[in-house]
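User: Can you recover a sequence for this backbone? Please restate the input before giving your answer.

Assistant: Of course. Working from this structure:
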């Protein structure tokens, strides 16, 4: 069976992407990019519509080759000449690269393992004077539930106390009353799904078992570094719910997908113990569902859906590309995120940004900085995206900001690949796993045949080429690590 380093493994995939090929008919080379992982794939096919079962089998064959060698995901780029001669590059990013939305996005370098952007590290603000809602009535709640569920099995005080200890938070009286009536353990139903349905209907939601209660961890709602690093969020003075990714005071007690939680860290206009809805399609914030658990059970809803509350100036600014005209116009003590694009006044000096206390994200398109070395004066950056040449200047001068948690190399266009030597030098500064690159050569023939007629592979590889999970560096035919000073001894 061909391995992940054999051209024969990838030839059917390339033929799949070449269906509808017209460029080589006109004597032009064709370039295709894609990404295949063991759990997902991104293939920009030219033919519209869903894949057939035979086409899916082509992808599954490639996945099996990856699985045999313990490879999680590979991004590939192929340059195919009119003659059919093909140069195929396979990039294995490894755990230090967060791949993005499509095969043409080179992804983000994760310099600090497990790091999160600023808004996802934000803890709830203390709200002085927060109290339960007037509708809170744990005795009415418990009495109502016992009337609706006379045969339910409740939790003991010891079991409730153990759950409080596990989560490190004291439960409000309403939540304790709820679980005194029904602990919602799966084995309590003895396979009686109708009884479970009646219980959920009585409470008004799909209740979690007592030992399934959990708080909302911001890390589980963090979708992507590049997108999240450019966001700045605040909680307005009139908000009932704090605009957070997570809180140790958000106790999830119901739901699968969208979740319901008791909120012990409410917003300025909220109530302690209110019920909030955490939308699984949103990565930050929550919406108010009911002022109290009593209101939820008695169906006295207060539907206040989450409203996206992201601020622009002065927290987030764009200079150039139709935004502000100067860096001075963006410089503000509250500035957190700055994107610099092309404009009539480019290139721009970063001197006006020096000393800004909250600036954490800087994205500068290639060629937009008058002096990239001025970045060294920005002492609080956690995310930085620059073009290859700008990174090269910082690396050569030894002034890459060590405050960074993540970085990106911009200006790749639709090339679908990182500047691997530069990326690996950045990863080396943080002693992170390097990116590996394998180059294979093959022949698809003068014109690609339909993908499902490609039973035989005409590819060839150098026997010394590897895609070894234990190696690090840049691979091209023979295994070697490429740096600015040449191969290591």
């Amino acid at each position: 069976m061909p391995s992940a380093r054999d051209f024969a493994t990838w030839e059917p995939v390339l033929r799949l992407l070449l269906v509808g090929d017209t460029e080589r008919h006109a004597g032009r080379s064709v370039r295709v990019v894609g990404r295949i992982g063991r759990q997902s794939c991104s293939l920009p096919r030219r033919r519209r519509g869903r894949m057939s079962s035979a086409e899916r089998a082509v992808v599954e064959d490639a996945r099996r080759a990856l699985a045999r060698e313990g490879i999680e995901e590979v991004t590939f780029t192929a340059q195919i000449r009119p003659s059919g001669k093909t140069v195929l590059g396979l990039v294995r990013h490894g755990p230090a690269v967060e791949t993005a939305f499509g095969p043409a996005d080179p992804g983000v370098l994760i310099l600090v393992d497990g790091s999160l952007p600023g808004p996802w590290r934000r803890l709830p603000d203390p709200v002085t004077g927060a109290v339960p809602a007037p509708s809170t009535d744990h005795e009415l709640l418990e009495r109502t539930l016992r009337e609706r569920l006379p045969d339910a099995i409740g939790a003991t005080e010891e079991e409730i106390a153990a759950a409080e200890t596990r989560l490190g938070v004291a439960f409000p009286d309403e939540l304790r009353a709820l679980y005194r009536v029904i602990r919602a353990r799966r084995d309590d139903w003895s396979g009686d799904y109708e009884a479970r349905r009646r219980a959920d209907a009585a409470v008004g939601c799909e209740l979690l078992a007592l030992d399934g209660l959990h708080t909302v961890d911001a890390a589980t709602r963090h979708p992507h570094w590049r997108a999240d690093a450019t966001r700045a969020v605040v909680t307005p003075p009139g908000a009932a719910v704090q605009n957070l990714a997570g809180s140790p005071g958000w106790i999830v007690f119901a739901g699968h997908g969208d979740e319901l939680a008791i909120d012990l860290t409410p917003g300025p206009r909220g109530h302690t113990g209110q019920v909030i809805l955490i939308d699984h399609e949103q990565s930050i914030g929550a919406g108010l569902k009911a002022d109290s658990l009593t209101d939820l059970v008695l169906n006295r809803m207060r539907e206040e859906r989450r409203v996206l509350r992201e601020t622009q100036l002065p927290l987030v600014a764009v200079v150039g590309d139709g935004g502000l005209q100067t860096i001075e116009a963006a410089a503000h003590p509250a500035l957190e995120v700055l994107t610099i694009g092309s404009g009539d006044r480019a290139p721009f000096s970063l001197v006006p940004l020096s000393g800004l206390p909250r600036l954490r994200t800087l994205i500068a398109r290639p060629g937009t900085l008058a002096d990239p070395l001025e970045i060294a004066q920005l002492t609080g950056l956690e995310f930085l995206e620059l073009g290859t040449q700008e990174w090269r200047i910082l690396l050569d001068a030894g002034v890459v900001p060590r405050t960074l948690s993540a970085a990106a190399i911009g200006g790749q266009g639709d090339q679908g690949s990182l500047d691997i030597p530069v990326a690996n030098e950045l990863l080396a500064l943080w002693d992170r796993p390097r990116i590996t690159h394998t180059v294979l050569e093959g022949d698809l023939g003068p014109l690609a045949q339909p993908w499902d007629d490609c039973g035989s592979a005409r590819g060839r590889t150098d026997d010394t080429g590897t895609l070894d999970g234990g190696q690090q560096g840049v691979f091209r035919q023979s295994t070697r690590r490429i740096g600015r000073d040449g191969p290591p001894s």
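That completes the design. Confidence is low (pLDDT under 50) at residues 448-489.
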